[in-house]
Structure formats: structure tokens, C-alpha cells
Amino acid sequence: MVERRSLTPEFINELVSPKTGERWVADTKIRGFGIRLWSSKRGDGAAFGVRTSNLEGKAIRKTFDPFGRNSHRWRWYINFSDGNIDFSNGIPMGFFLDDARSWARKVIGQAKGRIPTDDEQVQINVEDQKNREQFSRQLQGITLERAADIILFYGPHRGWSDTYTYQMKKLFHSNVPERLKRKLIKKITRNDIENVLSSEMVRPSNARALRSLLHQIFERVSILRGPEILDGMPGYAPNLYKRKLSKET
């Protein structure tokens, strides 16, 4: 099902997933950009995305990551600086519209063969580096528990089902010691992580899922500490979080 209209934050926040299947609402301001809503046995979801084609006619399908480097709205959530936004029930999808549109313009431009000039590329690289460093500094100043809460809040906006998000939250709080939860990101060592994952209290299947969640947290601190905390650990793989958790979670 495809609809077309000019997307606004208010309209997006009122959208509901279809009872079955998928619903695509195309933005009339940017051709190829829109929001996808779906319903499945794993739960409902919503995500901004791009549906376009490249110069060879090949279909391009990409999904916007509201917690990735292309989104700057996370700063408001971390600091709760925007008094006009109610976060009590999670983060409203319309909150990310501006960043999603900016991301879509770049993705569609690249697909259509628009190559930035040398000066434009230099400016893009400078701004990207600045944003990554600022993001890293801010995240290092919060506790592991706070960082996990942020990642889990964003889960449904990245395509996670409510059930999966709940399982990951339960997994984190059940297996990570309180002292480590309260520790600042910048003070956490590889030994801290290895001690949790190698604990006899954590089942192997759950350890893999927990490792992935912890990796995602440290991946967001990519400039100053980065994922090297977890690199080289036995059994590490960045996509393990996509696997189902053990029923014992």
C-alpha cells in the first residue's frame, strides 16, 4: 500500500501500523523518500527509508538509522534539552524527520550519480569528523546503564520488535553487575566486559547476544575508544544481535 503526502512530524507521530503487511507513505518533498510501517508476528514497527533506483536502473532500498552518524537529534535525547518533546513514552518518530530527509538527499544523490565537488567532500568530511568526536565525548561521560537505555530506546526505530527489545533489556539488567552498570563508559576496560561474558551465570547463547549489545554501545564511542574494546574476543561477530535469544533469557 503506497500513499503520497508531504510528511510532517505531527502526521508521522499519528501514524499506525497496518493490521497486516506493510504500509509505505511517500514524501512528496523528496522523491524516493518515505516512511515504512509494518506488522508481523514479531511486532509492529516503523522506519524512514529510501526507495529509488541508480543510473543502471537497479533498485536501491535503504533504511535510516536514527542513532547513526547521519542523525544529530540524539543529542537532545541524551541531555533531555528539548522541553517541547515528551519522552515519557519513548521517542516520537517525527523527532527524526529533518535528519532523515537530509540523509535521504545524500543517498538519492549518490544513487543518481551526483558526485560532490572536492570542496564539498572536504567540508562533508570535516563535519562528519566533528560530529563523531562530539558524540564520542558525550557518550563517554555517561554510565554504561545510561548508554544501554539509549540504545534500547532507539531499538524499535531501528526495526527491533517490542518483544526483542524487551528481551535485550532483560538480558542486560539480569547479567551485568550493578557496579559495572554505574561505571562511566570511558573507564570501562576489556577485562570488565570479558568478566561478564565469561561468567558461568551467563548461558553461551545469551553471552553472544549480550556481546552484540555491548558492542553496539561501544561502537557509538567510535573515535576515542571505539569497538576495539570488543575486537578479538572469542566468538565476536557484529551481527549476532540479529539472532534469536535463548528461551531462558
Structural account:
This protein has 249 residues and is an alpha+beta fold. The chain has two domains: 2-115, no CATH class; 144-242. Helix content is 41%, strand content 14%. It has a five-stranded mixed β-sheet with strand order 1-2-3-4-5. α5 (144-154) packs antiparallel against α6 (162-175) and α5 (144-154) crosses α9 (204-219). The protein is globular and about 50 Å long.
Tally of helical runs: 9
Count of folded domains:
2
- Tell me the radius of gyration: 19 Å
Order of H and E elements: EHEEEEHHHHHHHH
Largest sheet: 5 strands, mixed
**How much strand?**
5-15%
* Helix coverage percent: 40-55%
Cα shape:
globular
Beta strand count = 5
Q: What would the average pLDDT be, to the nearest integer?
A: 76
Low-confidence segments, given as residue ranges, are 79-83, 222-249
Structural class: alpha+beta
Q: Tell me the span between the first and last alpha carbons.
A: 36 Å
How are the strands of the biggest sheet laid out side by side? 1-2-3-4-5
Short description:
The protein is α+β, with helices and mostly antiparallel strands. The chain is built from nine helices and five strands. The protein folds into two domains: 114 residues, no CATH class; 99 residues.
